[in-house]
Specification:
single chain, 352 residues, alpha/beta, Rossmann fold, 2 domains, 6-stranded mixed sheet, 4-stranded parallel sheet, 14% strand, binds pyridoxal-5'-phosphate
Length: 352
Amino acid sequence: MTNFTWLLDQYRHLLNLPAHTARVTLHEGHTPLIPAPSLAGALGGGFQLWIKYEGLNPTGSFKDRGMTAAISEALGRGAKSVICASTGNTAASAAAYAARAGMQAVVLIPQGKVAAGKLAGAVAYGAQVVQVDGSFDQALAMVVALTEKHPLALVNSINPYRIEGQKTAAFEICDALGTAPDWLCLPVGNAGNITAYWAGFKGYHAVQATGLPQVLGVQAQGSAPLVLGHPVDHPETVATAIRIGKPARGEEALLAAEESGGRIIAVSDDDILAMQKLLASSEGIWVEPASAAGLAGLAQEIAGGRFDPHGQRIVAVCTGHGLKDPGIITQGGIQLESIPPELGALEAVIRS
Ligand SMILES: *Cc1c(COP(=O)(O)O)cnc(C)c1O
């Protein structure tokens, strides 16, 4: 036997999971909180910055924390199949955990808008992948309607056990730092994660007096319903994981921002991609575009003078791994230096 504690057992006293919950795990969670001093310096310095690197979960995104809970609950009550709508990461995660549980998974994805690494995962794990010629929001509405008529378990983040599982990231951050950070920055798409973090920090504070962070939620400008105050019919952004025009937990996200004394803002695609590169080249942490949005928002607030980071302890949640979406880096071609196999040619091109 190896020494392993399931995430949901470790924090069971803080989670609302029914007694029938089974145990389907890929050893998710327990992700590192990595100091990012070089990036903090590049943003002006004078504060402490950590990356909660959720790309190191089993299928490469934080979705696994919620999926271990949702699939375990579904299996425990005898469900045979699960279904979700997904911009990609939920699909890969649902497919993996369903495979682990011996269940069938059906995933609905918006046509042509899912990054290669996510689609490949869903297929590899054996899910039935259905493309919808429409948006994520339309696909989610179809999944909700279908599960009202048929006995498939819905595992999108409107499933309450997804939120329970995802709270564990907030607990881990408090455990690593000893208290909650001053600020938490994270991308916001369907708004399940910001909801889970805020509930998690509040739940931990209630029993351990760990304090509460202010929350900076960040959307992409082309998909910013919570900033605009109305749904977006045709959301657009390179950050496909947050390409969502009608967040299922939008009200809760706005409440989390308000209660915490934080806010929800939008950043441009250019700023997201620039931050993705800065994080990778300054800290060696390569994340998918959506995962750089929280940091891009932080940078924008600091540069605009709307946020004084001095002396603050800031955690940025980086939600998914860069390998999920290699196309965003290689599109437009990579200019490689090409040389003959001769030492002199190598000496002539080397720059350092
Ligand atoms: C799902 C996802 C998000 C958005 O999370 P929500 O809970 O939908 O707000 C952000 N980044 C990545 C990588 C994701 O997979």
